[in-house]
Amino acid sequence: MPLDFAGKTVFITGADGGLGRCLVANFAAAGAQVIAATRSGAAARPGLRTLALDLTDPASIAAAATAAETVDILVNNAGVNTNGRMFEPDSVASATAEMAVNYFGTFNMIRAFSPAMRTRRQGAIVNILSILAHVNLPVCATYCASKAAAWSLTQAARAELSAAGVKVYAMFPPVLDTVMSAHIPGPKMRPEDAAAEILQLLRDDVEDGFIGAAKDGYARLRADPKAVEKTMAGRIAS
Ligand SMILES: NC(=O)c1ccc[n+]([C@@H]2O[C@H](COP(=O)([O-])OP(=O)(O)OC[C@H]3O[C@@H](n4cnc5c(N)ncnc54)[C@H](OP(=O)(O)O)[C@@H]3O)[C@@H](O)[C@H]2O)c1
Fold first, then answer.
1. Average pLDDT of the chain, as a whole number
2. Which residues form the pocket of ligand 1, taking CB atoms under 6 Å from any ligand atom?
3. I need a surface site. Which of 86, 114, 154, 228 has the fewest CB within 10 A?
4. How much distance in Å is there from the Cα of 104 to the middle of ligand 1?
């Protein structure tokens, strides 16, 4: 069933981030009632219904989940990327921080918000992952691992919630022109364009959505699954 956003209540995490702001704008423009969750609790734009949410704090998630009864679509968008390699001195701390938000944050939000959706036998959960859920780039090794874990969890959630009429979507963006990837040279997708594409994929009921250049990237990965690994090994060795 294609998703229609008019009159739906959409809860978006990381709503003041680069992609989050664009998702807020696009869902609002499509007629949705948006609940914006930001870590600070500050509104991502004037007049927006906003609440404070720290995904690393179980009490904060529990407080946010008091809104769950009214939520039709949960968008797990917040994310952390420390851009670290696995043998750096602080990589355990980096990996822990990324897992805390990208994996456990998503995990705990699904656990907190899905019971109300199950009861109403309707709803949708949208996990913003990354093309790097499908391949590891050693320059951000621990981030990739956290997104792969979140993708694995997404598959479990989809199977668990399917019979209750709750849809679970995975969105895989390419590099985006946001703070998270500010240090990366080369072409980047505008978050406005990524958000628009995400909404269209949801309207079209595409469960696994590859955004922009991620579509071609994923096709190349499927054709030669070890290509990136070999290329990176060659680069690191040289
Ligand atoms: N940028 C890319 O190249 C790229 C590519 C593929 C996928 N993605 C994914 O797209 C999503 C959005 O990323 P973005 O590019 O918009 O990055 P961004 O601008 O850095 O936004 C990330 C958002 O996550 C929030 N966040 C971080 N830790 C949090 C916590 N503990 N609790 C609640 N919120 C927290 C941040 O809040 P604060 O501002 O308070 O820190 C911020 O609003 C992420 O899941 C990211 O992994 C990004």
1. 96
2. 13-14, 16-20, 39-40, 53-56, 77-81, 101, 128, 130, 173, 175-176, 178-181
3. 86
4. 14
